[in-house]
Amino acid sequence: MTAIKPADADRFLARPDRNRRVILLHGADQGLVAERAARFVRTVAGDDPLARVHFDADEVAREPARLADEANAVPLFGGERVITVAASGTRSLEAAVAPVLASPPVDAWVVIVAGDLRKSSPLRRLCEGDAGAAAIACYADAGRDLDRVIDEEAGAAGLAIAGDARAALKSLLGADRLVSRGEVAKLCLYAAGRGSITVDDVRAVVGDAAAFAVDETVDMVALGDAAGFDRGFRRLIAAGTPGFVIAGAALRHFNFLQVARAACDTGTPARSLVERARPPIFFQRQPSVARQIALWSPDLVERALAGLDQAMVDSRLHGAIADAVIGQALHAVAALLAAPGARMR
To answer: Which of 32, 57, 121, 273 could form a disulfide linkage to 177, CB 3.0–4.6 angstroms apart?
Structure first.
């Protein structure tokens, strides 16, 4: 098998094996696929544009022999060349790649960038089954990968990052490497000249400040804090946030609480459910949300959802007082925890 383990991928691409002239980069994280492809091209070909050739899937599928011809062509100015192929899910490339593997080039590399390929994919099976190829799967970044991205960008900007800011930042990143790197770079630009990145910087730049305020207000509802909700709701409305946006966030949150409570009742720890939630829950909210899962029984959360559903309907029927209708409904949901018997499980 020639699949490279995820932990070894970056090390392999930095010091490629010259006996493996075909590199298949594939996976769900297309940002990571693109970043690794670009880094590999720079490693073996530098910045020389004459050392780079690009084919798309249609070109290769239409003329399969063209890839091997290009790979084995003698370069005019010497040196190593890189041929990149942008694979397509609807185009078969095996007929073009197999001749390259059968007669490997000595001064060229073929880099195939693809989407998320199943193990049964013919292209993946071909590359994983041949000693002259290396297949590298690119999946969403885990904690250690995100730490490396953060450290690289912050180090280049001459910035330190506080522990709570790092935890907050990691909770908002990870689905796509290029997006994550771009967000960290933007954060570093915002904090430039101040020496370190704080959690307030993360909230201001990477997170949506208005969304944080909505989340905090919804948390007041889910904690049964009617007074806290009232203050937060009034501030949001005064700042121009429509009531239906707050109600929609509350509906999504109580849907999560319903699913999480069911999982919790079968033995899954609330903390684990909150940490694995998608979309991610901001780390400062996580203890509060874990507590909310314990507070809301299945029956109680169903009553909350029914009230919120009805409020959405009523707010559309009475547009002139929509915000008031939603505010009253959310206040009623917060009051459910104070009702007799609400704390009984």
So the answer is: 32
Q: In whole angstroms, what is the distance from residue 41 CA to residue 331 CA?
A: 58
Q: Is the pLDDT of residue 208 over 70?
A: no
Q: pLDDT class for 203, splitting at 50, 70, 90?
A: confident
Quick one: average pLDDT of 141-145?
Answer: 78
Structure tokens at 116: 């998320």
Euclidean distance between CA atoms 234 and 323, whole angstroms: 10
Long-range contacts of 55-60 (CB under 8 A, 24+ apart): 55/83, 55/84, 55/85, 55/86, 56/85, 56/86, 56/88, 57/85, 57/86, 57/87, 57/88, 57/90, 57/91, 57/93, 58/88, 58/91, 60/85, 60/91, 60/93, 60/96
Structure tokens belonging to residue 302? 């169903």
Calculate mean pLDDT across residues 30-46: 90
Query: CA-to-CA distance for 280 and 262, rounded, in angstroms?
Result: 19
112-133, pLDDT tens digit by residue? Answer: 999 888 889 999 999 999 999 9
Structural domains present in the chain: 3-137 (3.40.50.300), 143-205 (1.10.8), 209-338 (1.20.272.10)
Computed over every residue of the chain, the mean pLDDT equals 88
Tokens of 31: 């940002």
Q: What is the rounded CA–CA span in Å between residue 189 and residue 204? A: 12
